[in-house]
């Protein structure tokens, strides 16, 4: 048995979770994030849910409300048990609590430190949950840096 993720139709999440669990017999875990002042939404792209595969994984793909399985080539991508355990350890009152931001704020000058855009200077435009950022790059900027990404 191992954990994998299924992308679910957002308007049929409850049906998909019911069918995966009760009909197909998969153990499911559907962590919820508290969306700021908004209602909770499903973790991982609003409609993904990890599940274990004790029988053939292809049965999960064809359950009502399942759009697709997250694949690694021809087989479902495996999520390590440690990742699921870590997510569960962050749950408080039914919601996963994310770590606090590292002090970055929109408007902060940053330098990319790895990847194809390394050493590019940019301006932090938006922080989006969970930990996604939008940086406006300006290759000619020479201003002093405050933080590194």
Kindly summarize this structure in a few lines.
The protein has 149 residues and is α+β, with helices and mostly antiparallel strands. It has three helices and 13 strands, in the order E-H-E-E-E-H-E-E-E-H-E-E-E-E-E-E.
Descriptive overview:
With 149 residues, the chain is an alpha+beta fold. The chain folds into 2 domains: 3-96, 2-Layer Sandwich (Alpha-Beta Plaits); 109-148. 16% of the residues lie in helices and 31% in strands. The protein has helices at residues 13-23, 58-61, 81-89; strands at 3-8, 32-33, 41-42, 48-52, 66-69, 71-72, 75-76, 91-92, 95-96, 109-111, 121-128, 132-137, 147-148. The strands form 5 sheets. Strands 12-11-10-13 form a 4-stranded mixed beta sheet, with no helix packed on it. Strand 6 (71-72) and strand 7 form a beta hairpin. The radius of gyration is 19 Å and the shape is elongated. It starts with a strand and ends with a strand. The model is unreliable at 36-48 (pLDDT under 50).
Topology:
Elements: E1 3-8, H1 13-23, E2 32-33, E3 41-42, E4 48-52, H2 58-61, E5 66-69, E6 71-72, E7 75-76, H3 81-89, E8 91-92, E9 95-96, E10 109-111, E11 121-128, E12 132-137, E13 147-148
Parallel strand pairs: 10-13
Antiparallel strand pairs: 1-4, 1-5, 2-3, 6-7, 8-9, 10-11, 11-12
């Amino acid at each position: 048995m191992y954990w994998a993720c299924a992308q679910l139709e957002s308007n049929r999440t409850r049906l998909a979770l019911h069918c995966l669990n009760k009909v197909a017999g998969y153990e499911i875990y559907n962590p919820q994030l508290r969306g700021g002042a908004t209602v909770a939404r499903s973790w991982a792209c609003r409609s993904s849910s990890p599940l274990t595969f004790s029988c053939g994984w292809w049965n999960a793909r064809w359950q009502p409300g399942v759009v697709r399985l997250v694949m690694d080539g021809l087989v479902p991508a495996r999520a390590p048990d440690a990742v699921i355990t870590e997510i569960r350890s962050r749950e408080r009152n039914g919601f996963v609590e994310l770590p606090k931001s590292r002090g970055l704020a929109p408007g902060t000058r940053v330098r990319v430190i790895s990847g194809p855009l390394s050493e590019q200077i940019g301006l932090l435009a938006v922080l989006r949950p969970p930990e996604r950022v939008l940086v406006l790059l300006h290759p000619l900027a020479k201003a002093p840096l405050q933080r590194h990404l």
